[in-house]
Design goal:
The protein is mostly helical. Helix content is 83%, strand content 1%. The protein has helices at 2-6, 13-74, 83-114, 118-127, 131-146, 150-173, 180-200, 210-216, 218-287, 289-326, 334-348, 351-359, 367-436, and strands spanning 7-8, 11-12. Strands 1-2 form a two-stranded antiparallel ribbon.
Length: 458
């Protein structure tokens, strides 16, 4: 059993984690490059526009993972006999979500233009047509992770980044020098990755089955949506309030300070989440609490050690990095970067707890801690940002992060083991009862034969 947990179609769990981390590194590098490009082309104000647009995009990304990819991972969709049908339905759901979001972003952009926020309004309008492509491209990455084929995710991101870089250079050569250059290049790159994913997994795009999937999984996904939305709101409310109090320059400074930690740390956090949730769900189905506990400990250890190493680099060289990467005017935000690095360490200790609560279908227990953290975040931001600027925004990130982490750990210690043992016992009883009734239990594909690539063909 332990070997089945460790091994899969791409070899050992450590190899899959390494490839997944490489993919997340490439993805985060791409996002960092877009922000850096905006800063270099349009200064702190341009970076501020991109930061706000990206913050709202993160909310949408959280939505699609909670509604679609996380439930697919929890239910082991890519390891079921009808995996091809489930993948097509998942893509249809992503396209529906992207179309609705595109309309919402466009309306928000028009409203911002009407109230005089022209830079922010143009940013929303420029991004809105590309949202279905951004969601579809991220979906293909998750299909690769869930099928234990992270190499496909890595190749898709390489295509995405190559197209994005090419478009960015062409626009600059053509004489376009606004922050929108980065947004346009980002969107076109996502369109290329989304189309390449259709080829990779042999899937024809369709809107059929998407709404049905969203409705059928709502009982599970609603708690994931609520938990992730409130968690994202905690993280992004500070950025939004910084923009409101300090304007584009203030939010640009916060974005620069945040990127030192968020960029590299996000590689580790998303890598552990991308491979961790599918592995945790499979381990729970195969070995019960001992299997889930092993994955939880591995994810937490990798996350904490990795983030702590990144934080150490920031403590020692943060000022130098800000000055030499973003420009001399950004050196003043080194203190804020140190506080945000500490917040990252605190947050990383809850990675395994979140994983266990999701895998055991206890997503509703994530909600109390994340909801309370939103209130704490707003209050601390309102109190600290006006008098202390970007440093106040950094402290207003650390306090709610600590509050949220403590709540998640308490819920995990109280419920994860009980829920895992109950689920595993029910699975064993169901498996034993089916032959007794003369039924044939559907057998999931083994970890050595995941439903991906060729098996997703019609």
């Amino acid at each position: 059993m332990l070997e089945r947990l460790r091994n899969g179609p791409n070899g050992s769990l450590s190899i899959r984690f390494g490839v997944t981390a490489a993919d997340q590194c490439l993805s985060s590098l791409s996002n960092f490059a877009v922000g850096l490009a905006a800063a270099r082309v349009a200064g702190a104000a341009g970076l501020g526009v991109y930061a706000l647009v990206y913050a709202v995009w993160l909310v949408l990304a959280s939505m699609h993972r909670s509604l679609i990819t996380d439930p697919m991972a929890i239910e082991n969709d890519l390891h079921q006999p009808d995996a091809a049908r489930r993948v097509r339905a998942g893509l249809a759901a992503e396209l529906w979500l992207g179309l609705v979001a595109a309309v919402g972003f466009a309306v928000a952009g028009v409203v911002m233009l009407a109230v005089g926020q022209h830079q922010f309004g143009l940013g929303f309008l420029c991004l809105s047509p590309w949202l279905p492509c951004l969601l579809a491209q991220d979906y293909w990455r998750w299909v690769g992770f869930m099928s234990a084929k992270p190499k496909k995710s890595l190749v898709n991101d390489i295509v995405f980044d190559a197209i994005q870089a090419t478009v960015f250079v062409l626009l600059l050569v053509a004489g376009v020098h606004t922050s929108m250059v980065a947004v346009w290049a980002w969107g076109v790159g996502a369109a290329g990755g989304a189309l390449f994913g259709l080829f990779q997994f042999r899937v024809r795009p369709s809107l059929r089955g998407g709404v049905e999937l969203l409705v059928r999984r709502w009982r599970l996904s609603r708690w994931l949506v609520a938990g992730n939305l409130t968690s994202t709101a905690t993280n992004q409310s500070t950025a939004v309030l910084t923009g409101a109090f300090l304007g584009p320059t203030g939010i640009g400074g916060l974005k620069a300070a945040t990127s030192l930690m968020a960029g590299p740390a996000l590689v580790l956090v998303q890598a552990t989440g991308s491979i961790g949730l599918p592995e945790a769900s499979r381990a729970l189905h195969e070995r019960g609490w001992p299997g889930l506990r092993r994955v939880e400990r591995l994810v937490t250890a990798v996350g904490v050690v990795g983030v702590a190493l990144i934080a150490t680099v920031i403590f020692c060289f943060g000022h130098w990095i800000l000055v030499n990467v973003y420009g001399p005017s950004f050196g003043q935000y080194a203190g804020a970067a140190n506080v945000l690095a500490l917040a990252g360490i605190v947050t990383s200790t809850s990675l395994g707890a979140i994983l266990c609560l999701k895998a055991t279908r206890k997503g509703h227990l994530i909600l109390p801690a994340t909801t309370a953290a939103v209130g704490v975040s707003i209050v601390t931001a309102v109190l600290l940002i006006p008098p202390y600027g970007v440093m106040g925004a950094a402290v207003a990130t650390l306090i709610p992060s600590s509050f949220r982490t403590a709540g998640l750990l308490v819920s995990h210690w109280a419920w994860s083991r009980k829920s895992a043992e109950r689920m595993y016992r029910e699975l064993q009883e169901e498996s034993a009862s089916l032959p007794a009734r003369g039924a044939v239990a559907p057998q999931p594909l083994s970890p050595a034969e995941p439903a991906s690539a060729g098996s997703l063909e019609r």
